[in-house]
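Bumping my old thread because nobody answered last time. Still need a sequence for this structure:
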């Protein structure tokens, strides 16, 4: 219970704009990828159980390339929903950011809105976007005027 209260206090704390390190950002990425894989696996399992006949009819007669592309596009939906809801509802945090005590904020330090969270999520869908992190300022930050900062208590 005490840990839950601590997480809720983070949402109300004053943010000091100290950019999160590349290591923290990478940890966020890895944790969120693991969470998304679990969600994707569970969604795939549920869809297969409940819609196996419909899926069989849809994919019947399709080539491997078409099946791959449809699967890829449907795989982007949980990614978009996860990042949008998590960052929008928690003022810039995902499960990875909760673990590493970081938060996405506007460049002026203000919390991000649901609209900004959705834009950040859309930017993450750009092909090769994760590689933009090697520049030190990923596209989902630069295109939305946001940054990820460490949460520090003073």
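Sorry it took so long. Here it is:
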């Amino acid at each position: 219970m005490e840990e839950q209260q601590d997480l809720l206090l983070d949402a109300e704390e004053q943010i000091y704009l100290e950019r999160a390190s590349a290591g923290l950002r990478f940890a966020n990425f890895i944790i969120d990828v693991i969470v998304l894989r679990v969600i994707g696996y569970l969604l795939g399992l549920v869809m297969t159980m409940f819609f196996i006949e419909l899926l069989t009819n849809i994919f019947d007669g399709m080539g491997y390339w078409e099946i791959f592309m449809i699967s890829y596009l449907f795989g982007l939906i949980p990614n978009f929903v996860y990042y949008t809801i998590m960052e929008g509802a928690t003022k810039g945090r995902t499960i990875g950011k909760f673990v590493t005590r970081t938060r996405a904020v506007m460049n002026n330090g203000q919390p991000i809105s649901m609209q900004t969270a959705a834009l950040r999520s859309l930017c993450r869908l750009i092909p090769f976007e994760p590689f933009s992190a090697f520049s030190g300022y990923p596209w989902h930050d630069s295109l939305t005027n946001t940054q990820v900062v460490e949460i520090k208590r003073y």
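The chain has a mean pLDDT of 85. Let me know if any region looks off to you.
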